[in-house]
UniProtKB/TrEMBL annotation:
Any Pfam family matching the protein: Catalase
Coiled coil as UniProt keyword: no
EC numbers on record: 1.11.1.6
UniProt-recorded name of the protein: Catalase
Catalyzed reaction equations: 2 H2O2 = O2 + 2 H2O
Classification lineage: Bacteria, Pseudomonadati, Pseudomonadota, Alphaproteobacteria, Parvularculales
Keyword line: Heme, Hydrogen peroxide, Iron, Metal-binding, Oxidoreductase, Peroxidase
Length: 691
């Protein structure tokens, strides 16, 4: 008898019986009811253990095999389910059904860091992966992108070297989840093609406030193909509805200690609360004529096309609205493959993309243990699958019936499945000529122009962060010649930046590196490249941390909470004891955090509501002083009541109060009205050495 492929383990009536207390009866994997899950079967007391205990053996065997290899890159990740809705019709350029206006397509999205292992902290300075699996009616489309629109290298053959250099050094096994070490900067400085991406990773893009506040990019140039077979080049962009936001570097360092799960917790909580994060999907569309006139090769993944040159057309919105039921089943087992494209979407000749199309399929085999990973529910298409591929490890759905080859005259009346020249995926019939050689295209030779364009497009605080980041990273590099070599490249990007970094390292300015092609130095700045310039002026989805003591003014707290909530933000109470505080009117407010477990790095802005006695008490508490001093140093907006002054004094902030600091006794509107600016960056040069 044919097996029902959908048979569920616990479907059988016998094992659905409950225990005397009404719990489901525990069974083995074979469905045999378990009598004792506390003790091994033994002979006598205390007695040797007996091999007869199949429940023990199966339990331990399964536990011993719980781990699978972590991803060789992007090991630390977090995913959620959602839906993509097309808001514009793209049928003028693609036959892909998911781009018909109003069409809703389920998705699974996984965000990740790149270099760190599975247990590394969320806010490491690193690129973030932004991978989306669209379960379309014509199969799965995986858009496996990053939160940075360019990549380090131009040819896939250098990927193992890049990753080896970025990961912990092989002899010592550290540092974890960091590029601040010799090997990374050695490789980068010997590979000038990395310089554009280096500018991006030294910017605030690599220390995002959360996944909800990041852009995403498909990076490569892809193709859209219409029903007649006409091709249009496309670059994909994800734009967060909440706008972009990043944290300060010193804050990131502390966040990783305070909450190594900061990003995943943020995403999980937002979805649990029903505050679903959304991104618009945009496309930059262009043809061969544009590609020919563009000063760089559109097939070179180290280059972007400024939005000012080709505007981003918004074509749909992704909403992440369901957390996973089980992290391993979905987030860990999801297998993205860049080769997964659907009719209407195609590849370009970008040599990085071509290399990826081999690597992703290959890596899943190792990670998930066999070719049937496509049958794991998170990877299964949501449309019918008819194939004669069969067997292998963990075969869960084999073809039914007698026929397992094509062509055949068995099986269904028509003897199918058969290929379908009308509906089937057709590759774009690009004409290709040329000698077979190992080479790098001459058109890829410019390594500095867009690096410079990125730098000059940043606001002053962002430029400062980049100089600080480079100085910090190179200060961890032990070999002076590597530091110098990096600065020699910076000289080709921006002289002021190079000099700042050299000064920060006390390094003699080297000769500029010899460029393969002279850089174009007058590319117009692009505001779209700056997080600060693109600020949306909203506090929506952000968090105010309110440090409170007994006797704090109840009306001020109520006004603050209501104003922040109306602005779409959240308020968390930080208290000396998690049991809460008693307000001036005798009401109790629960603490969301105890002050030493809820440092100000967890919040976008802070307020201190203290009674006179409360202020005196907090003044002597080191975590409370750090709460204030850090918030101030991280350029956060800060509000306080009069009672908090002793704490502000002791934290060294009272003498330095500025326009980013608000006295609350006169009302909360001034403070809450400013929160959408997110940070008071003007303060920053006054609070650090590098200012
Ligand atoms: Fe990946 N990359 N990559 N990558 N990548 C992987 O596949 C690879 C590249 C990206 O959440 C691996 O399933 C090569 C660019 C994301 O599961 C592996 C090259 C971009 C994820 C792999 C690149 C990415 C990966 C490891 C150069 C942005 C995580 C585990 C040719 C456009 C997906 C896996 C997830 C994962 C190879 C370059 C993004 C080994 C060879 C460029 C978001 O196959």
């Amino acid at each position: 008898m044919a097996q029902d492929p959908d048979l569920k383990l616990d479907d059988s009536g016998a094992n659905r019986q409950t225990t005397r207390d009404g719990y489901e009866t525990m069974t083995t994997q074979q469905g045999i009811p378990v009598a004792d899950d506390q003790n091994h079967l033994k002979a006598g007391a205390p007695g040797p253990m007996l091999m007869d205990d199949f429940h023990f053996r199966e339990k331990m065997f399964h536990f011993d095999h719980e781990r699978i290899p972590e991803r060789v890159v992007h090991a630390r990740g977090y995913g959620a389910r959602g839906v993509f809705e097309a808001t514009d019709d793209l049928s003028d350029v693609t036959s892909a059904g998911l781009f018909q206006k109003g069409k809703k397509t389920p998705v699974f999205t996984r965000f990740s860091t790149v270099a760190g292992n599975k247990g590394s902290p969320d806010v490491a300075r690193d690129v973030r992966g932004f991978a989306v699996k669209f379960y379309t009616d014509e199969g799965n489309w995986d858009l496996v992108g990053n939160n940075i629109p360019v990549f380090f290298i131009q040819d896939a053959i250098k990927f193992p070297d890049l990753i080896h250099a970025a990961k912990p050094e092989p002899d010592r096994g550290f540092p974890q989840a960091q590029t601040a070490h010799d090997n990374f900067w050695d490789f980068a400085s010997l590979s000038p093609e990395t310089m554009h991406m280096i500018m991006w990773i030294m910017s605030d893009r690599t220390i995002p406030r959360g996944f909800r506040f990041m852009e995403g990019f498909g990076v490569h140039t892809f193709r859209l193909i219409d029903a007649e077979g006409k091709s249009t080049y496309v670059k994909f962009h994800w734009k967060p509805k909440l706008g972009m936001q990043s944290v300060a570097w010193n804050e990131a360092v502390k966040l990783n200690g305070a909450d190594p799960d900061f990003h995943r917790r943020d995403l999980w909580n937002a979805i649990e609360k029903g505050d679903y994060p959304q991104w618009d999907l945009g496309v930059q569309l262009f043809d061969q004529d544009f590609a020919d006139s563009f000063p760089f090769d559109v097939l070179d993944a180290t280059k972007l096309i400024p939005e000012e040159d080709v505007p981003v057309r918004i074509v749909g919105t992704m909403t992440l609205n369901e957390n996973v039921d089980n992290f391993f089943a979905e987030t860990e087992q999801v297998a993205f493959c860049t080769q997964n494209v659907v009719p209407g979407i195609g590849f370009s000749d970008d040599p990085l993309l071509q290399g990826r199309n081999f690597s992703y399929l290959d890596t899943q085999l190792k990670r998930l243990g066999g070719p049937n990973f496509t049958r794991i529910p998170v990877n299964q298409p949501r449309c019918p699958v008819h194939t004669f591929q069969q067997d292998g490890h963990m075969a869960m759905k084999n073809p039914m019936g007698r026929a397992n080859y094509e062509p055949n005259s068995w099986g269904t009346e028509a003897g199918g499945p058969r290929e379908d020249p009308d509906r089937g995926y057709k590759h774009y019939p690009e004409e290709v000529r040329g000698p077979k050689t190992f080479h790098r295209s001459e058109t890829f030779a410019d390594h500095y122009s867009q690096a410079r364009q990125f730098y000059v497009s940043q606001s002053a605080p962002e430029q400062k962060h980049m100089a600080d980041a480079l100085t910090f990273e190179l200060s961890k590099v032990e070999h002076g010649k590597i530091r110098s070599r990096v600065v020699s490249h910076l000289l080709n990007i921006d002289e002021t930046l190079a000099k700042k970094v050299a000064k920060g390292l006390r390094l003699e300015l080297p000769e500029p590196a010899r460029p393969a092609r002279a850089p174009i130095t007058d590319l117009a700045p692009s505001d779209a490249l700056s997080i600060v310039k693109m600020n949306k002026g909203t506090f929506k989805g952000r968090k105010l941390g309110v440090l409170m003591t007994d006797g704090a003014d109840a009306d001020t707290f109520a006004a603050l909470k209501s104003a922040v909530t109306s602005a779409g933000g959240m308020v968390e109470v930080v208290a000396p004891m998690v049991g809460g505080v008693e307000l001036s009117d005798g009401s109790m407010v629960e603490g969301d955090q105890k002050v030493d477990g809820g440092p100000s790095v967890l919040y976008d802005a802070v307020a201190i509501l203290a009674s006179a006695e409360g202020g005196q008490m907090l003044m002597n508490d080191a975590p409370s002083r750090d709460f204030v001093a850090d918030a101030f140093a991280h350029a956060k907006f800060l509000a306080y009541t009069d009672g908090a002054m002793p704490l502000l004094k002791k934290a060294g902030v009272a003498e330095a109060l500025d326009e980013g600091c608000f006295e609350l006794d006169g009302g909360v509107d001034g403070f809450v009205g400013t929160l959408g600016k997110l940070r008071h960056w003007d303060r920053e040069p006054k609070v650090d050495l590098d200012g």
